[in-house]
Amino acid sequence: METLWIIIWAITSLPTALPAQPNVSNTTLPVLRNVSLPTGWNTMCHTSVAFVDWHITTLSENEVSNMMQVSCTLQANSSLNLIDFRNWTARMPSSQKFAVQVSCSNKAVFRAPWPMKAKNLVFLRIKDCIIEDYFVEYFDPQVSQIKDEIRVLEIKHSVIPIHFLKLQELVKNYTEIVSDSYCGPVTVEKAAFNGIVFEPRFPSSFGAPSDLSDVPPGCSDPKDFVSDTLGGKRTLSPDEFLKMIEIGEALDRLIKLFLGTDIGFSCTYENLILFDESNSASLSSMDVIKKNSRFKELLTYNLSSVGFTRVPTELINWRSYTHFPKLKYLDLSHNCISDFDFADFDVTDNVSAPETGVIDLRYNNITQLNKKTLDSLFNLKSATVLVQDNPLDCSCESVSHLIRLLKNRSSLGRYEYLRRLQCATPRQISDSRTQVGQLTESRVCPTTPQTDLIILCSALGATVLLLIVASVLLIHYRKELIIITFTRLRIKLSCRKSPPLPMKTYDVFISSCDDDREWVKKNVIDALNNFKGKSFNMCLRENWEYGVPIADMIAKSIDTSVHTLAVISSQSLRDEWRHFEFSLALHQSLQEKRRHLIVLFKEDVSKTDLLSDMRKYVATTPCLHFNKRLYRDRLIYALCHDEKTNPTLSARSSDTSLESDSTFVSL
Length: 667
Fold this sequence. Notes:
Elements: H1 2-12, H2 41-44, E1 45-49, H3 61-65, E2 68-74, E3 79-81, H4 82-89, E4 98-104, E5 109-111, E6 121-127, E7 130-132, E8 152-156, E9 159-163, H5 164-172, H6 179-183, E10 190-194, E11 197-201, H7 222-229, H8 238-246, H9 249-258, E12 268-269, E13 274-276, E14 294-295, E15 300-302, H10 313-316, E16 329-331, E17 357-360, H11 371-379, E18 383-386, E19 392-393, H12 396-408, E20 423-425, H13 427-430, H14 441-444, H15 449-476, H16 478-489, E21 506-511, H17 517-529, E22 538-539, H18 550-559, E23 561-568, H19 576-592, E24 597-601, H20 612-620, E25 624-625, H21 631-640
Parallel strand pairs: 2-4, 3-5, 4-6, 5-7, 6-8, 8-10, 9-11, 10-13, 12-14, 13-15, 15-16, 16-17, 17-18, 19-20, 21-22, 21-23, 23-24, 24-25
Antiparallel strand pairs: 1-2
């Protein structure tokens, strides 16, 4: 009963949303005689004094009184063309208005190009028809020459065929659509599109849907159309494409294209009061709300039974100035919505907020009234949300917050009905037909010592599991963790105490061939110079003394440097001087009994290309690899720490230990 009163309040508060019927039945109207309808219409239609069930506010009383009603009944396989009627009314005086009602049966066809314009046509109702030629005039500029006069447009339980090639043309050339076809009848006061089905139609040469893969040469392939024209990320089979159109996804993509900024039209509906799209699951829910559109007077928007699983983005800010600032009743009932979070009305400095409206979410799939949902309800000041008749789950997690709210508040104002909500689950509560206001937290959230023990054990188990996982990760990545904390945070985590670095003139001597000079500059020298934790003093060949033999300078550079960094590449392996530098640096490591020589592989090289001493060294000593993650951190860490040489290095006198190992030891 309370729900009924809320609906009655919502309806009676709309000044023009559901107006009283006109009293034309009590007015003496002239009888229309000697009216000859156009060819085709004269055999299936008859004329009478018009009586329309909508009060047309933008017509004068005289125009309404003299309106002619044309009622047409189309039998099986018959056809009627709106263009014939348009050509006929073009010769009529402007004062003679028409109300056309077309009813079809058994696949009768009514040809009516959108936006269904005709001179003096103010009322058009189409029912149970196949509407052909719907997209024919989308690119015709002559449509704009016809005055837009429709005040009431209703299309119910009809089929609109979508011919494949026409849809392809629309998508490819959508920027050329004329504004009148894009916006539709902007003078309309009431628009209703109920039970409309968009039905795919392919050229006969395409064959049956299962045979569409063999499209004749020169024909547009539906698979290419989906993947290329509609921007699909994968190629769909013909049957998938057919299914895609049946469920409306292709139309949704088409409409999204229309919503783009490329067309540049601004649609303003000055007089639209009631818009009804109920029971039209195949229609896009937002096909009228195009970019830059504005519905100045819209009071009622009916989107019930359209198959929504969520509230469309365009309706979250439900009474936005961009679309419908005066909306009073938004009907989203009989859908599958499970969650909602409406944004409140944003009052600007120059515009005052309209009266509180109603958002109807009854008969959906709302199962939880948790804290988030209740906050959304009570924080929304611009509307009252109706959530009755939903399959409410009265488990502890779902309604515990609601129970505490009902207990702490003596009055809920406009949401007093929450106390009388019925539970759908669990069964022991729903069978007793207990209302939410009668529930207690102890009933829906029972606690026992055994339950507390289970919770405690679960928490301990989860903690132990997290500790085990963390320990495994720390052990597995311990080397990387030590390196990163040193290079990024300047923190030493190593448990081993590394010996101090010897005091020498240079921190590192860089051994590389001339072909690698630019690479070394970018990836080694710059990396070391950019490190803020230490200033590296590098010995480079550019700094050698002139006139001194090369061999002497190499020996001096190695002897006066803490480390020698040998850059190994396919080019350096062919350089005899680099071989000499490697041998001296290796000898220095053995002599000092520390890792003086650090090997950096610029790229992957075959171990067979390495000299004998190189193969032995890289097989037993950690090396740096440029293509390995954390390369720069590993380089800096290696140059800032000292390690003893592998005691088995000098004992390696053969290559047999390397034959089964295709990779080198990595730092």
